[in-house]
Amino acid sequence: MSQKPWDGRFSEQTDRAVEAFTASIDIDRRLYQYDIDGSIAHCRTLARAGILTPEEADELVFGLESVRGEIESGTFSYNDSLEDIHMHIEDRLFSHVGNLSRKLHTARSRNDQIALDTRLYVKDQGGKIAGQLLDLCKAFIDLAENNIDVVLPGYTHLQRAQPVLFAHHMMAYFEMFARDKARFEDCLKRVDVMPLGSAALAGTTYPLDRSYTAELLGFSSVSENSMDAVSDRDFIMELLSCASICMVHLSRISEELVIWSSTEFSFVDLPDAFCTGSSIMPQKKNPDIPELVRGKAGGVFGSLTAVLTLMKSLPLAYNRDMQEDKKPLMDAVDTLRTCLDIYVRMLPKITVNRSLTEAAADRGYLNATDMADYLVEKGMPFREAHGVVGKAVAYALGEKKELHELDLPELTFFSSLIEDDIYPALSVKQMIDRRKTYGGTATQNVQEAIERARKRLS
Protein backbone atom coordinates (compact mmCIF):
# COMPACT_ATOMS: atom_id res chain seq x y z
CA MET A 1 0.00 0.00 0.00
CA SER A 2 1.58 3.28 -1.05
CA GLN A 3 -0.23 5.36 1.53
CA LYS A 4 -1.29 5.05 5.13
CA PRO A 5 -5.01 5.46 5.79
CA TRP A 6 -4.15 8.54 7.88
CA ASP A 7 -1.65 10.13 5.45
CA GLY A 8 -3.79 13.19 4.86
CA ARG A 9 -2.95 14.56 8.31
CA PHE A 10 0.81 13.91 8.26
CA SER A 11 3.65 15.68 6.48
CA GLU A 12 6.28 12.93 6.92
CA GLN A 13 6.33 9.26 6.09
CA THR A 14 6.25 6.84 9.00
CA ASP A 15 9.75 5.84 10.08
CA ARG A 16 10.51 2.21 9.22
CA ALA A 17 11.48 1.53 12.82
CA VAL A 18 8.08 2.83 13.88
CA GLU A 19 6.40 0.59 11.32
CA ALA A 20 8.20 -2.42 12.71
CA PHE A 21 7.52 -1.42 16.32
CA THR A 22 3.80 -0.78 15.85
CA ALA A 23 3.09 -3.71 13.54
CA SER A 24 0.98 -6.52 15.00
CA ILE A 25 0.62 -8.63 11.87
CA ASP A 26 2.85 -11.39 13.23
CA ILE A 27 0.19 -11.98 15.91
CA ASP A 28 -3.15 -10.87 14.50
CA ARG A 29 -2.72 -12.60 11.13
CA ARG A 30 -4.39 -15.51 12.91
CA LEU A 31 -7.59 -13.43 12.99
CA TYR A 32 -7.92 -13.32 9.20
CA GLN A 33 -10.91 -15.66 9.12
CA TYR A 34 -12.86 -13.57 11.61
CA ASP A 35 -11.81 -10.31 9.98
CA ILE A 36 -13.06 -11.47 6.58
CA ASP A 37 -16.30 -12.79 8.07
CA GLY A 38 -16.81 -9.44 9.81
CA SER A 39 -16.06 -7.52 6.61
CA ILE A 40 -18.54 -9.59 4.64
CA ALA A 41 -21.24 -8.97 7.26
CA HIS A 42 -20.39 -5.25 7.29
CA CYS A 43 -20.58 -5.19 3.52
CA ARG A 44 -24.05 -6.74 3.55
CA THR A 45 -25.14 -4.26 6.23
CA LEU A 46 -23.88 -1.33 4.14
CA ALA A 47 -25.93 -2.64 1.22
CA ARG A 48 -28.98 -2.99 3.46
CA ALA A 49 -28.53 0.67 4.46
CA GLY A 50 -28.29 1.74 0.80
CA ILE A 51 -24.65 2.82 1.17
CA LEU A 52 -23.57 0.12 -1.28
CA THR A 53 -25.57 -1.24 -4.20
CA PRO A 54 -26.32 -4.97 -4.17
CA GLU A 55 -23.92 -5.39 -7.09
CA GLU A 56 -21.14 -3.58 -5.25
CA ALA A 57 -21.73 -5.72 -2.18
CA ASP A 58 -21.55 -8.91 -4.27
CA GLU A 59 -18.31 -7.78 -5.87
CA LEU A 60 -16.75 -6.93 -2.52
CA VAL A 61 -17.80 -10.26 -1.04
CA PHE A 62 -16.28 -12.07 -4.02
CA GLY A 63 -13.06 -10.10 -3.54
CA LEU A 64 -12.96 -10.86 0.18
CA GLU A 65 -13.43 -14.56 -0.47
CA SER A 66 -10.62 -14.41 -3.01
CA VAL A 67 -8.35 -12.88 -0.36
CA ARG A 68 -9.39 -15.63 2.04
CA GLY A 69 -8.42 -18.22 -0.54
CA GLU A 70 -4.99 -16.65 -0.99
CA ILE A 71 -4.33 -16.64 2.77
CA GLU A 72 -5.43 -20.25 3.13
CA SER A 73 -3.36 -21.40 0.15
CA GLY A 74 -0.23 -19.71 1.52
CA THR A 75 0.24 -17.33 -1.41
CA PHE A 76 -0.60 -14.20 0.60
CA SER A 77 2.33 -11.93 1.49
CA TYR A 78 2.73 -9.87 4.66
CA ASN A 79 4.44 -6.54 5.21
CA ASP A 80 5.08 -4.57 8.43
CA SER A 81 4.17 -1.34 6.67
CA LEU A 82 0.55 -2.51 6.61
CA GLU A 83 0.61 -2.99 10.39
CA ASP A 84 -2.28 -5.39 11.01
CA ILE A 85 -4.53 -7.97 9.44
CA HIS A 86 -7.22 -5.36 8.71
CA MET A 87 -4.95 -3.27 6.50
CA HIS A 88 -3.44 -6.33 4.82
CA ILE A 89 -6.86 -7.59 3.78
CA GLU A 90 -8.01 -4.12 2.68
CA ASP A 91 -4.82 -3.62 0.66
CA ARG A 92 -5.14 -6.99 -1.07
CA LEU A 93 -8.85 -6.42 -1.68
CA PHE A 94 -7.86 -3.36 -3.73
CA SER A 95 -5.94 -5.68 -6.07
CA HIS A 96 -9.15 -7.64 -6.71
CA VAL A 97 -11.85 -4.97 -6.95
CA GLY A 98 -9.96 -1.68 -7.32
CA ASN A 99 -11.33 1.57 -5.88
CA LEU A 100 -14.52 -0.16 -4.76
CA SER A 101 -12.48 -1.61 -1.87
CA ARG A 102 -12.17 1.89 -0.42
CA LYS A 103 -15.90 1.93 0.29
CA LEU A 104 -15.75 -1.04 2.64
CA HIS A 105 -14.43 0.93 5.59
CA THR A 106 -17.44 3.26 5.55
CA ALA A 107 -19.08 3.46 9.01
CA ARG A 108 -16.33 1.35 10.52
CA SER A 109 -13.14 1.92 12.52
CA ARG A 110 -10.28 -0.41 13.23
CA ASN A 111 -11.37 0.03 16.86
CA ASP A 112 -14.69 -1.77 16.48
CA GLN A 113 -13.18 -4.03 13.83
CA ILE A 114 -10.58 -5.53 16.18
CA ALA A 115 -13.13 -5.70 18.99
CA LEU A 116 -15.29 -7.79 16.66
CA ASP A 117 -12.45 -10.01 15.44
CA THR A 118 -11.29 -10.75 18.97
CA ARG A 119 -14.78 -11.56 20.17
CA LEU A 120 -15.28 -13.93 17.25
CA TYR A 121 -11.95 -15.58 18.09
CA VAL A 122 -12.86 -15.96 21.76
CA LYS A 123 -16.31 -17.32 20.87
CA ASP A 124 -14.75 -19.87 18.54
CA GLN A 125 -11.88 -20.95 20.81
CA GLY A 126 -13.93 -20.83 23.99
CA GLY A 127 -16.47 -23.17 22.43
CA LYS A 128 -13.73 -25.55 21.34
CA ILE A 129 -12.22 -25.53 24.85
CA ALA A 130 -15.62 -26.36 26.32
CA GLY A 131 -15.80 -29.29 23.88
CA GLN A 132 -12.37 -30.51 24.94
CA LEU A 133 -13.39 -30.27 28.59
CA LEU A 134 -16.41 -32.42 27.79
CA ASP A 135 -14.05 -35.06 26.38
CA LEU A 136 -11.79 -34.77 29.44
CA CYS A 137 -14.74 -35.19 31.81
CA LYS A 138 -15.77 -38.33 29.94
CA ALA A 139 -12.20 -39.65 30.21
CA PHE A 140 -12.26 -39.21 34.00
CA ILE A 141 -15.63 -40.96 34.24
CA ASP A 142 -14.34 -43.87 32.17
CA LEU A 143 -11.17 -44.13 34.26
CA ALA A 144 -13.27 -44.14 37.42
CA GLU A 145 -15.73 -46.72 36.13
CA ASN A 146 -12.98 -49.03 34.89
CA ASN A 147 -11.41 -49.02 38.37
CA ILE A 148 -14.59 -48.85 40.45
CA ASP A 149 -13.44 -51.30 43.16
CA VAL A 150 -9.82 -50.18 43.51
CA VAL A 151 -8.93 -48.73 46.91
CA LEU A 152 -6.08 -46.34 47.70
CA PRO A 153 -5.17 -44.08 50.61
CA GLY A 154 -6.76 -40.67 50.65
CA TYR A 155 -4.38 -37.96 51.81
CA THR A 156 -4.45 -34.72 53.77
CA HIS A 157 -1.24 -32.74 54.21
CA LEU A 158 0.25 -35.42 51.90
CA GLN A 159 -0.09 -37.85 54.82
CA ARG A 160 -2.23 -40.96 54.61
CA ALA A 161 -5.62 -40.13 56.07
CA GLN A 162 -8.47 -42.51 55.19
CA PRO A 163 -9.02 -45.09 52.46
CA VAL A 164 -11.07 -44.03 49.45
CA LEU A 165 -11.99 -45.57 46.14
CA PHE A 166 -9.67 -44.65 43.30
CA ALA A 167 -12.86 -43.96 41.36
CA HIS A 168 -13.95 -41.47 44.03
CA HIS A 169 -10.59 -39.71 43.66
CA MET A 170 -10.97 -39.51 39.87
CA MET A 171 -14.52 -38.23 40.20
CA ALA A 172 -13.18 -35.37 42.30
CA TYR A 173 -11.28 -34.29 39.18
CA PHE A 174 -14.40 -34.80 37.11
CA GLU A 175 -16.13 -32.24 39.33
CA MET A 176 -13.26 -29.76 38.89
CA PHE A 177 -13.28 -30.01 35.11
CA ALA A 178 -17.06 -30.01 34.95
CA ARG A 179 -16.95 -26.66 36.76
CA ASP A 180 -14.33 -25.49 34.26
CA LYS A 181 -16.60 -26.45 31.38
CA ALA A 182 -19.49 -24.56 33.00
CA ARG A 183 -17.23 -21.53 33.54
CA PHE A 184 -16.25 -21.39 29.87
CA GLU A 185 -19.85 -21.79 28.78
CA ASP A 186 -20.90 -18.99 31.11
CA CYS A 187 -18.06 -16.81 29.89
CA LEU A 188 -19.26 -17.29 26.31
CA LYS A 189 -22.56 -15.64 27.22
CA ARG A 190 -20.76 -12.35 27.85
CA VAL A 191 -18.58 -12.69 24.76
CA ASP A 192 -21.69 -13.04 22.62
CA VAL A 193 -22.16 -9.29 22.10
CA MET A 194 -21.62 -7.71 18.68
CA PRO A 195 -19.56 -4.45 18.79
CA LEU A 196 -19.45 -3.57 15.07
CA GLY A 197 -21.18 -0.27 14.36
CA SER A 198 -19.60 1.45 17.34
CA ALA A 199 -16.97 2.85 14.97
CA ALA A 200 -14.08 4.68 16.69
CA LEU A 201 -15.93 5.35 19.96
CA ALA A 202 -19.07 7.43 19.37
CA GLY A 203 -21.07 5.34 16.93
CA THR A 204 -21.70 6.31 13.31
CA THR A 205 -23.91 8.68 11.37
CA TYR A 206 -24.86 5.97 8.88
CA PRO A 207 -28.17 4.08 9.32
CA LEU A 208 -26.72 0.66 10.05
CA ASP A 209 -28.99 -2.18 11.11
CA ARG A 210 -26.70 -3.57 13.78
CA SER A 211 -29.11 -6.35 14.69
CA TYR A 212 -28.89 -7.55 11.10
CA THR A 213 -25.07 -7.57 11.34
CA ALA A 214 -25.28 -9.49 14.60
CA GLU A 215 -27.58 -12.04 13.00
CA LEU A 216 -25.19 -12.54 10.09
CA LEU A 217 -22.29 -13.12 12.49
CA GLY A 218 -24.17 -15.35 14.92
CA PHE A 219 -24.26 -12.94 17.88
CA SER A 220 -27.26 -12.98 20.21
CA SER A 221 -27.11 -9.25 21.03
CA VAL A 222 -25.45 -5.96 20.12
CA SER A 223 -23.41 -3.71 22.38
CA GLU A 224 -25.34 -1.06 24.30
CA ASN A 225 -22.61 1.58 24.56
CA SER A 226 -20.19 2.44 21.76
CA MET A 227 -17.41 3.59 24.10
CA ASP A 228 -17.59 0.42 26.14
CA ALA A 229 -17.79 -1.71 23.01
CA VAL A 230 -14.44 -0.58 21.59
CA SER A 231 -12.58 -0.49 24.92
CA ASP A 232 -14.00 -3.57 26.65
CA ARG A 233 -11.56 -6.43 27.14
CA ASP A 234 -13.39 -8.00 30.09
CA PHE A 235 -14.23 -10.99 27.93
CA ILE A 236 -10.52 -11.65 27.38
CA MET A 237 -9.74 -11.33 31.07
CA GLU A 238 -12.63 -13.63 31.88
CA LEU A 239 -11.53 -16.26 29.39
CA LEU A 240 -7.98 -16.09 30.74
CA SER A 241 -9.31 -16.39 34.28
CA CYS A 242 -11.25 -19.51 33.29
CA ALA A 243 -8.13 -20.84 31.56
CA SER A 244 -5.99 -20.17 34.63
CA ILE A 245 -8.37 -22.02 36.96
CA CYS A 246 -8.48 -24.91 34.52
CA MET A 247 -4.67 -25.01 34.41
CA VAL A 248 -4.65 -25.14 38.22
CA HIS A 249 -6.72 -28.30 38.00
CA LEU A 250 -4.53 -29.78 35.28
CA SER A 251 -1.48 -28.97 37.39
CA ARG A 252 -2.97 -30.69 40.43
CA ILE A 253 -3.70 -33.95 38.62
CA SER A 254 -0.25 -33.68 37.03
CA GLU A 255 1.37 -33.42 40.45
CA GLU A 256 -0.49 -36.50 41.63
CA LEU A 257 0.50 -38.51 38.56
CA VAL A 258 4.14 -37.49 39.02
CA ILE A 259 4.05 -38.64 42.65
CA TRP A 260 1.98 -41.77 42.01
CA SER A 261 4.21 -42.93 39.13
CA SER A 262 7.39 -42.59 41.20
CA THR A 263 9.15 -45.73 42.42
CA GLU A 264 8.39 -44.70 46.01
CA PHE A 265 4.64 -44.89 45.31
CA SER A 266 4.19 -46.93 42.10
CA PHE A 267 0.43 -46.46 42.37
CA VAL A 268 0.07 -45.94 38.61
CA ASP A 269 1.94 -46.71 35.41
CA LEU A 270 1.93 -44.02 32.75
CA PRO A 271 1.89 -45.28 29.14
CA ASP A 272 5.32 -45.42 27.50
CA ALA A 273 4.02 -43.32 24.61
CA PHE A 274 3.49 -40.42 27.02
CA CYS A 275 6.83 -40.63 28.81
CA THR A 276 10.44 -39.98 27.85
CA GLY A 277 13.79 -41.37 28.92
CA SER A 278 17.11 -39.99 30.04
CA SER A 279 20.03 -39.11 27.78
CA ILE A 280 22.45 -40.66 30.27
CA MET A 281 20.52 -43.07 32.53
CA PRO A 282 19.11 -45.99 30.49
CA GLN A 283 16.71 -47.15 33.21
CA LYS A 284 14.77 -43.88 33.47
CA LYS A 285 11.13 -43.45 32.51
CA ASN A 286 10.22 -39.84 33.18
CA PRO A 287 6.67 -38.46 33.55
CA ASP A 288 7.45 -35.55 31.24
CA ILE A 289 3.87 -34.93 30.10
CA PRO A 290 2.47 -34.26 33.59
CA GLU A 291 5.61 -32.28 34.44
CA LEU A 292 5.31 -30.08 31.36
CA VAL A 293 1.60 -29.49 31.91
CA ARG A 294 2.38 -28.54 35.51
CA GLY A 295 5.07 -26.16 34.26
CA LYS A 296 2.93 -24.61 31.51
CA ALA A 297 0.35 -23.49 34.07
CA GLY A 298 2.61 -20.57 34.97
CA GLY A 299 2.53 -19.22 31.42
CA VAL A 300 -1.27 -19.13 31.42
CA PHE A 301 -1.31 -17.38 34.80
CA GLY A 302 1.17 -14.89 33.33
CA SER A 303 -1.13 -14.20 30.38
CA LEU A 304 -3.96 -13.32 32.75
CA THR A 305 -1.69 -11.06 34.77
CA ALA A 306 -0.43 -9.39 31.58
CA VAL A 307 -3.92 -8.45 30.38
CA LEU A 308 -5.09 -7.37 33.83
CA THR A 309 -2.02 -5.13 34.07
CA LEU A 310 -2.55 -3.88 30.52
CA MET A 311 -6.10 -2.75 31.20
CA LYS A 312 -5.91 -1.51 34.78
CA SER A 313 -5.09 2.15 34.04
CA LEU A 314 -6.55 2.77 30.59
CA PRO A 315 -8.99 5.67 30.24
CA LEU A 316 -11.90 5.39 27.83
CA ALA A 317 -12.03 4.62 25.03
CA TYR A 318 -9.57 2.75 22.78
CA ASN A 319 -5.83 2.98 23.48
CA ARG A 320 -3.04 1.45 21.43
CA ASP A 321 -1.93 -0.50 24.50
CA MET A 322 -4.79 -2.86 23.71
CA GLN A 323 -2.86 -4.14 20.73
CA GLU A 324 -0.86 -6.12 23.30
CA ASP A 325 -3.86 -8.17 24.43
CA LYS A 326 -3.78 -10.72 21.63
CA LYS A 327 -0.42 -12.38 22.25
CA PRO A 328 -1.17 -13.39 25.87
CA LEU A 329 -4.70 -14.39 24.85
CA MET A 330 -3.55 -16.61 22.00
CA ASP A 331 -0.61 -18.03 23.95
CA ALA A 332 -2.93 -19.06 26.79
CA VAL A 333 -5.54 -20.54 24.46
CA ASP A 334 -2.89 -22.52 22.57
CA THR A 335 -1.35 -23.79 25.80
CA LEU A 336 -4.62 -24.82 27.40
CA ARG A 337 -5.93 -26.52 24.28
CA THR A 338 -2.70 -28.48 23.85
CA CYS A 339 -2.72 -29.58 27.50
CA LEU A 340 -6.36 -30.66 27.32
CA ASP A 341 -5.74 -32.59 24.13
CA ILE A 342 -2.81 -34.54 25.51
CA TYR A 343 -4.63 -35.37 28.74
CA VAL A 344 -7.65 -36.69 26.84
CA ARG A 345 -5.24 -38.95 24.94
CA MET A 346 -3.21 -40.04 27.99
CA LEU A 347 -5.83 -40.70 30.70
CA PRO A 348 -7.45 -43.80 29.15
CA LYS A 349 -4.05 -45.49 28.96
CA ILE A 350 -3.09 -45.07 32.64
CA THR A 351 -2.83 -48.35 34.58
CA VAL A 352 -3.54 -48.51 38.31
CA ASN A 353 -1.37 -50.88 40.37
CA ARG A 354 -4.19 -52.22 42.50
CA SER A 355 -2.16 -54.47 44.79
CA LEU A 356 0.09 -51.58 45.82
CA THR A 357 -2.68 -49.03 46.34
CA GLU A 358 -4.69 -51.45 48.45
CA ALA A 359 -1.67 -52.48 50.50
CA ALA A 360 -0.97 -48.80 51.18
CA ALA A 361 -4.59 -48.24 52.26
CA ASP A 362 -4.23 -51.06 54.78
CA ARG A 363 -1.25 -49.51 56.59
CA GLY A 364 -0.68 -46.30 58.50
CA TYR A 365 -3.59 -46.41 61.00
CA LEU A 366 -6.09 -45.20 58.41
CA ASN A 367 -8.82 -46.94 60.44
CA ALA A 368 -8.24 -44.80 63.56
CA THR A 369 -11.28 -42.61 62.88
CA ASP A 370 -13.40 -45.71 62.32
CA MET A 371 -12.29 -47.07 65.70
CA ALA A 372 -13.40 -43.79 67.28
CA ASP A 373 -16.72 -44.03 65.43
CA TYR A 374 -17.11 -47.58 66.73
CA LEU A 375 -16.74 -46.31 70.29
CA VAL A 376 -19.23 -43.51 69.63
CA GLU A 377 -21.74 -46.10 68.44
CA LYS A 378 -21.18 -47.87 71.77
CA GLY A 379 -22.13 -44.68 73.60
CA MET A 380 -18.81 -42.87 74.15
CA PRO A 381 -18.63 -39.11 73.33
CA PHE A 382 -16.52 -38.51 70.23
CA ARG A 383 -13.93 -36.31 71.95
CA GLU A 384 -13.36 -39.00 74.55
CA ALA A 385 -13.21 -41.66 71.84
CA HIS A 386 -10.65 -39.59 69.95
CA GLY A 387 -8.39 -39.60 72.99
CA VAL A 388 -8.81 -43.32 73.59
CA VAL A 389 -7.90 -44.17 70.00
CA GLY A 390 -4.95 -41.79 70.11
CA LYS A 391 -3.54 -43.78 73.01
CA ALA A 392 -4.20 -47.04 71.17
CA VAL A 393 -2.31 -45.71 68.12
CA ALA A 394 0.63 -44.71 70.29
CA TYR A 395 0.69 -48.22 71.79
CA ALA A 396 0.43 -49.87 68.36
CA LEU A 397 3.31 -47.74 67.07
CA GLY A 398 5.45 -49.07 69.88
CA GLU A 399 4.45 -52.63 69.07
CA LYS A 400 4.97 -52.05 65.32
CA LYS A 401 1.42 -53.24 64.66
CA GLU A 402 -1.64 -51.79 62.96
CA LEU A 403 -4.77 -51.24 65.06
CA HIS A 404 -6.51 -54.22 63.48
CA GLU A 405 -3.44 -56.37 64.27
CA LEU A 406 -3.80 -55.82 68.03
CA ASP A 407 -5.52 -58.71 69.80
CA LEU A 408 -8.72 -58.20 71.76
CA PRO A 409 -7.11 -58.03 75.24
CA GLU A 410 -4.77 -55.32 73.96
CA LEU A 411 -7.71 -53.32 72.59
CA THR A 412 -9.96 -53.76 75.63
CA PHE A 413 -7.18 -52.31 77.78
CA PHE A 414 -8.09 -48.93 76.24
CA SER A 415 -11.86 -49.34 76.62
CA SER A 416 -14.17 -52.00 78.01
CA LEU A 417 -16.66 -51.06 75.27
CA ILE A 418 -14.52 -52.83 72.69
CA GLU A 419 -15.68 -56.30 71.65
CA ASP A 420 -14.99 -58.81 68.86
CA ASP A 421 -17.20 -56.87 66.47
CA ILE A 422 -14.55 -54.15 66.24
CA TYR A 423 -12.50 -56.08 63.70
CA PRO A 424 -14.99 -55.89 60.79
CA ALA A 425 -15.38 -52.17 61.55
CA LEU A 426 -11.63 -51.71 61.07
CA SER A 427 -11.53 -53.49 57.68
CA VAL A 428 -10.88 -51.40 54.58
CA LYS A 429 -14.03 -52.67 52.86
CA GLN A 430 -16.27 -51.54 55.72
CA MET A 431 -14.41 -48.26 56.06
CA ILE A 432 -15.22 -47.58 52.42
CA ASP A 433 -18.79 -48.81 52.28
CA ARG A 434 -19.96 -47.29 55.57
CA ARG A 435 -19.35 -43.79 54.19
CA LYS A 436 -22.76 -43.56 52.58
CA THR A 437 -23.47 -39.89 53.10
CA TYR A 438 -24.22 -38.17 49.80
CA GLY A 439 -20.90 -37.45 48.13
CA GLY A 440 -19.01 -40.00 50.20
CA THR A 441 -16.69 -42.76 48.98
CA ALA A 442 -19.00 -45.78 49.50
CA THR A 443 -19.00 -47.96 46.38
CA GLN A 444 -22.72 -47.53 45.75
CA ASN A 445 -22.36 -43.75 46.14
CA VAL A 446 -19.56 -43.61 43.60
CA GLN A 447 -21.45 -45.80 41.12
CA GLU A 448 -24.44 -43.49 41.41
CA ALA A 449 -22.19 -40.42 41.07
CA ILE A 450 -20.80 -41.85 37.83
CA GLU A 451 -24.33 -42.39 36.50
CA ARG A 452 -25.33 -38.84 37.43
CA ALA A 453 -22.16 -37.47 35.85
CA ARG A 454 -22.91 -39.18 32.54
CA LYS A 455 -26.42 -37.72 32.60
CA ARG A 456 -25.04 -34.25 33.35
CA LEU A 457 -22.77 -34.43 30.34
CA SER A 458 -25.51 -35.70 28.04
Task: Please name the defining characteristics of this protein.
60% helix; elongated; 458 residues; Fumarase C, Chain B, domain 1; Fumarase C, Chain A, domain 2; single chain; mainly alpha; Ribonucleotide Reductase Protein R1, domain 1; two-stranded antiparallel ribbon
Pick out the low-confidence regions.
none
Q: What CATH architecture of the largest domain do you see?
A: Up-down Bundle
Order of helices and strands: HHHHHHEEHEHEHHEHHEHHHHHHH
Q: What is the CA-CA span between the terminal residues?
A: 52 Å
Main pleated sheet: 2 strands, antiparallel
Biggest sheet: strands side by side, in what order? 1-2
Strand content: under 5%
Q: Radius of gyration over alpha carbons?
A: 31 Å
Helix content: 55-70%
CATH class of the largest domain: Mainly Alpha
CATH H level, superfamily name of the largest domain: Fumarase/aspartase (Central domain)
What value does the average pLDDT take? 95
Number of strands: 6
What is the fold named in CATH at topology level of the largest domain? Fumarase C, Chain A, domain 2
What is the fold's blueprint, element by element?
Elements: H1 16-22, H2 25-28, H3 32-48, H4 54-73, H5 85-97, H6 110-146, E1 151-156, E2 159-165, H7 166-191, E3 193-194, H8 210-217, E4 221-222, H9 226-231, H10 234-260, E5 268-269, H11 288-311, H12 326-346, E6 351-352, H13 354-361, H14 368-377, H15 382-399, H16 408-412, H17 422-425, H18 428-433, H19 443-457
Parallel strand pairs: 3-4
Antiparallel strand pairs: 1-2, 5-6
